Amino acid sequence: PKRIFSGMQPTGQLHLGNYLGALKNWVALQDEGSFECFYCVVDMHAITMPHDPKALPGAVRAAAAAYIAAGVDPAKSALFAQSAVPEHAELAWIFNCVARMGWAERMTQFKDKAGKDKERASVGLFTYPVLMAADILVYKATHVPVGDDQKQHLELCRDVAARFNRDYGDGEMIFPITEPVIQGPGARIMSLRDGLSKMSKSDVSDNSRINLHDDADTIAKKIRKAKTDPEPLPDTMEALNARPEATNLVGIYAALTGRTKADVLAEFAGQGFGVFKPALADVAVEYLAPISDEFRRLVADQAEIDRILTDGAERARTVAAPVLKQAKQVIGYWS
Ligand code: TYM
After folding, report:
1. In the beta sheet, which residues pair with residue 50?
2. Structural domain total, the chain
3. What is the value of ipTM here, to two decimals?
4. pLDDT per residue over 72-113, tens digit each?
5. Residue 50 annotated as binding?
6. Could you tell me if residue 191 is inside a domain?
């Protein structure tokens, strides 16, 4: 069967990068109908960095509400919290013994997140991508829709699957070699304050990102204030690509409307940002306002979210349990 797995961390609030890089594709793949979809809130990954234990369950509910507001349908897709499916953690231990130190040491995201003082980073932060491999492979997922920044982690997942199959599969392909689905102009959305750094929840400036819960005025204001250059939009992609901030805004417009950047450029070439920014703000508000309205409605209904998460975890476990059992058998566990 064709299976999708993907997840997001419940830290802070989801932003436009999360939506255009991942969520929007999750919903499209779910609605396409030929995949069995598992969409997870990865609270086990959230504890790899300093966090507030009291705030975590609420953040998980908020992330789940955002998934649903964006179009994840709990009747079609299993929506659950990672910590509610212990099979992830059990398979992660096995994979910790399959993955090599050298693979984990190459991960650029660990280097970025650990910062200068690697000695003080948690061991969990180091093996973070191994847990990701377990998240995916405990469902034998064949496809994983993510933003561009997860590409290297998915390569490690493929390496883990290939190595496990080779060392323990006895000629059988126990785990699939999962395909990343990284597509379209939304795969890498940059900060509104700096076209060379990623839009991120950890940026200190709230003006650097559009949050899924921002209201229409805030969205319009952030776009108006977005960093740009004084030139009008060019008429070739080559000229656009040399201008990071302009590229990013055109990319956001394209991703929101489901068009290509070249197509958007053809419409706006020769126009200044005095014209383009208000047009972008209109599009952003039109697409995001219904999501943020629905988000606010859902997040107030904790009982409903908890019911959905409990049901999703049950469905996830019925798939994950037999896969874990098979992995335990071939690795030689006693029980
Ligand atoms: P996280 O929580 O950092 O991000 C969630 C998703 O949003 C995408 N994304 C972006 N896409 C485009 N532009 C941006 N500026 C941007 N910022 C974030 C990410 O690529 C991601 O798809 N390690 C993962 C969570 C995870 C996971 C998994 C994903 C855990 N296990 C298994 C896939 C499969 C993470 O921290 O994503």
Report:
1. none
2. 2
3. 0.99
4. 999 999 999 999 999 999 999 999 999 999 999 999 999 989
5. no
6. no
DSSP string, 114-167: H-S-GGGS-HHHHHHHHHHHHHHHTTT-SEEE--GGGHHHHHHHHHHHHHHHHH
* Enclosing domain of residue 79: 3-181+302-331
Distance 47 CA to ligand 1 centre (A): 16
Whether 113 is a known active-site residue: answer yes
In the numeric block, which tokens belong to residue 33? Answer: 């109908």
Instruction: Kindly report, residue by residue over 283-324, the tens digit of the pLDDT.
Output: 999 999 999 999 989 999 999 999 999 999 999 999 999 999
- Asked whether 41 and 278 are in contact (CB, 8 A), the reply is no
- Cβ atoms < 10 Å from Cβ of 163: 17
156 in the same domain as 37: yes
* pLDDT confidence of residue 2: 95
Q: Choosing from 24, 54, 76, 113, which is the catalytic residue?
A: 113
Whether residue 174 sits in one domain with residue 28: yes
222 is annotated as an active-site residue: no
The answer to whether residue 118 scores a pLDDT higher than 90 is: no
State the catalytic residue, choosing from 76, 201, 221, 328: 201
- The CATH number linked to 306 is 3.40.50.620
201 is catalytic: yes
- 217, burial (CB in 10 Å: exposed 0-12, middle 13-18, buried 19+): exposed
Ligand 1 contacts (CB < 6 A) are 5-9, 17-18, 21-22, 42, 45, 132, 135-136, 144, 146-147, 149-150, 187-189, 198-199
- Do 40 and 5 form a contact (C-beta atoms < 8 A)? yes
The amino acid at 292: S
